[in-house]
Amino acid sequence: MINDRTILHCDLNGFYASVEMLSHPELAGLPVAVGGDPSKRKGIILAKNEEAKKFGVATGEALWVAKRKCPKLVVLPSHHKLYEEYSIKVNEIYSRFTSQVEPFGIDESWLDVSASRKLFGTGKEIADKIRETVKRELGLTISVGVSFNKVFAKLGSDYKKPDATTVFGRADIEKIVHKLPVKDLLYVGKKTADTLHKLGIYTIGDLASSNEAMLLRRFGKFGAELLAYAKGEDNSPVACYGETEEAKSIGNSHTFARDLLGDEDIAAGFGKVAENVSKRLIEANLKGYVLSIVIKDANLSSLVRQKKLNKPISSYKDLINNSIELFKANWDNSPVRMLGISLSQLTPADTPVQAELFETKLHSTKAEDALGKAILKIKDKYGNSAINFANRSIKDL
């Protein structure tokens, strides 16, 4: 008998809109959305409640388009600091059930509750207890997917919304999972889905039965990963971001107030995330060898990529440069809504590193590390706005 893990994926329903509704109980039952400034050309829908969803209002579309679909739509301004506060509160509730919690953006988290089953019951029972606790204490609802790996747990949380628990066990793979559209699979964005469709692959089952050599020719190493995901062979661990001692990874992500378009936007977006990651690495006196980035498009479809670095990094500049390089190698010109950066295979910052022959950047790397520490001290003493990096050029991120 297979001794499977029990993995949960918890997804807050209409997170921004739900948090705003806590301050506006008078809007209960009305179509409500959170969006950018309607006076700006790029004002978009960031989140919507269930009532707005019934009118076809979609995340990422222009405010004027949403208003045409739903003339009585109430559009509220966004308050990102408030959303961050509630995200922390929700993850604190998750941590009561397991120490293995991996945030995936501001409104989603994976939990490995394998070791918690003796205390709290089955995966479904734990999921239901978490949903009830979040609703009772914070007034928010979540959808939870329960499965034996992260990919299928995520698929489960998307399967039924809002305020629901969906279990995908091994017996459900052929019966349910393989019949779902391939675009529903985690890491299959629009571009990948279009390519798979051209290959005659429309469902997750089609992908699971595909020829691996063909997928490798078309997608490279990612093709083998896609095949494994579709077959239910994802064994990636739930990483505990933010740990310090004996940390497995340190990372951060940010969902932006508007879509990011073009090189300047992407650089500024990664800059916003890299600053936080670099700060946490410096505070923990750590560097990392493996860089991972998470990208979500305007429809919140996700793509995750990673690469092994020749040397461990922690500086703001190194994080940005390597993240942008990885981004450009794997993303088209589609608008971006969320970016995340994390480092794993961590090592103490003072671990000796073998210099490469003819290397010219050793001293500049030390200078960048020193600069990062100096900026951190200034921010700690005088506040975050006291000093910023030059390429932080976008004010409304």
From TrEMBL:
GO molecular function: DNA-directed DNA polymerase activity
Protein name, entry field: DNA polymerase IV
Top-rank taxon: Bacteria
Manner of cofactor binding, per the entry note: Binds 2 magnesium ions per subunit.
Entry cofactors: Mg(2+)
EC number: 2.7.7.7
Enzyme class: transferase
Recorded catalytic activity of this chain's protein: DNA(n) + a 2'-deoxyribonucleoside 5'-triphosphate = DNA(n+1) + diphosphate
Organism: Intestinicryptomonas porci
Subcellular locations according to the entry: Cytoplasm
Protein family according to the UniProt entry: Belongs to the DNA polymerase type-Y family.
Functional summary from the UniProt entry: Poorly processive, error-prone DNA polymerase involved in untargeted mutagenesis. Copies undamaged DNA at stalled replication forks, which arise in vivo from mismatched or misaligned primer ends. These misaligned primers can be extended by PolIV. Exhibits no 3'-5' exonuclease (proofreading) activity. May be involved in translesional synthesis, in conjunction with the beta clamp from PolIII.
Gene: dinB
Active-site residues, Swiss-Prot/TrEMBL: 108
Marked site: Substrate discrimination: 16
Residues covered by the UmuC domain: 7-189
Gene3D superfamilies: 3.30.70.270, 3.40.1170.60, 5' to 3' exonuclease, C-terminal subdomain (1.10.150.20), DNA polymerase, Y-family, little finger domain (3.30.1490.100)
Keywords, alphabetical: Cytoplasm, DNA damage, DNA repair, DNA replication, DNA-binding, DNA-directed DNA polymerase, Magnesium, Metal-binding, Mutator protein, Nucleotidyltransferase, Transferase
InterPro entries for this protein: DNA/RNA_pol_sf, DNA_pol_Y-fam_lit_finger_sf, DNA_pol_Y-fam_little_finger, DNA_polymerase-Y, DNApol_IV, Rev_trsase/Diguanyl_cyclase, UmuC
Binding site for Mg(2+): 11, 107
Oligomeric form and interacting partners: Monomer.
